[in-house]
Design goal:
By secondary structure, the protein is α+β, with helices and mostly antiparallel strands. The chain has a single domain, classed as TcpA-like pilin. About 45% of the residues lie in helices and about 20% in strands. The chain has helices spanning about 1-10, 15-65, 75-80, 130-140, 170-175; strands spanning about 75, 115, 120-130, 150-155, 160, 180-190. It has a 6-stranded antiparallel beta sheet. Strand 2 and strand 3 form a beta hairpin.
Length: about 190
Amino acid sequence: MSKYTSRLHNKAGLTLVETTIVLAIVSVIISAVWMVSSVVYENAHQYQANRQLQAIVQNVRQLYARLNALTNLADVTITLDAQAAFPIEMRVNQSNAAGLINHPWASTATGSVKIFNRTSTTFGVVFSNLPKKACIGLATKLTGGEITNLSQVIINGTITPSSALPISVVSANLSCTSPNANSFEWQFNIRG
């Protein structure tokens, strides 16, 4: 009976080593899924920012043609928001047209996107409070001619003229210095 009891005891469950191996395999699978989902999430934000920026630029150019002029060196975000120049999902409060606009990485109540009329022929779209990874992604993906007549890019005060675009990953990494508070401005010619 003792042989029979010992066989039942050995088949009764998993050993500590087997349990550890199973937990290690499950941990590796979960971390792989986590990494893939974070990449997919970041790519979705990059795509959304690209689409939003293109819509803003197109709408500003159309509004400029209708309004004929915007005040120089002024924040025209509220004026443009009143004219529905921003995609609805960018508004902090969907029912309020107060010019409080956010990019895909922000959820601030004060807004993180501003539009400035820089000169009589150029305007700037500013995304503030960007995480470093998002700043680098925008610098490398949205400076290569996706939107016409980009005159220059300003990242945290560093100006890159159109002749030096697109921005390389190394240059973007040097310019995007803050972990979570980078400022990115695209300056466009008003006439596309």
